[in-house]
Amino acid sequence: MSGTVLLTGAAGRIGTVLRGGLPERGWALRSLDVVPIDEPRPGEEHVVADVTDPAAMAEAVSGTSAVVHLAGIPGESTWAAVSHANIAGTQCVLEAARRAGVPRVVLASSNHATGFTPRPESGLLREDDGLARPDTFYGVSKVAMEALGSLYADRYGLDVVCLRIGSAYPEPTTTRQLSTWLSPRDQVGLVDAALRAPSPGFAVVWGVSANTRNWWDLTAARALGYEPADDAEPYAEALIAVHGEPDLADPVHGRVGGEYTTADFDAEHFEEHT
Q: pLDDT digit string (tens) for 225-246?
């Protein structure tokens, strides 16, 4: 598969990484966000638009071969804000792709769709072990995203790959992230694999690097062609020296969603995004 990829949420943290890495893998990008893109790359198209605007999305997907959908509120907020940006926005993107005949959509889901799932004391969690147990309204929006992807795959025949992304940062900064880190290089590799996998149908895969302390099984992601290159373990000694070894009795370490499962992440503590 090749051609132009519409990248929504292109000005965000992961979007910025992909804007640098996907062209090196041979993809032409049409980068979309609600704000202008800083430091445009050579040959990169730019679109300023809202993913909840059907007319704008219909125009944005025209002539593309795939969509990578990152746009939305990237953490907990009010129900009104999250449901509009993340759920209505995802439906708008999928519908625009369907109407335009775009065959593949890659959706940025999250481990927070399964946040209240207990972290295993031994062994690895497969995707089927991580059933919907969202930890926040944000997590609910990712459950809905996966459900919408399933609908559009089954009813309309789109290839839809949902990436349950862990902690996508330049480097791990907490002991939890020794298990959940997805390095910048592996962010690019995972999305590239999701774009290139032949006929994936509907797939949900964990999105983390090859961390020594992983609690997620990467078999399904590897089946798409993803070969993670990085491991958080080189950061372990310094982080453990500061924070100590993870205590599974602590919800931050005992549940998949970490701090998102704590009282501090009740939506009442979050103001409306504007």
A: 999 999 999 999 999 999 999 8
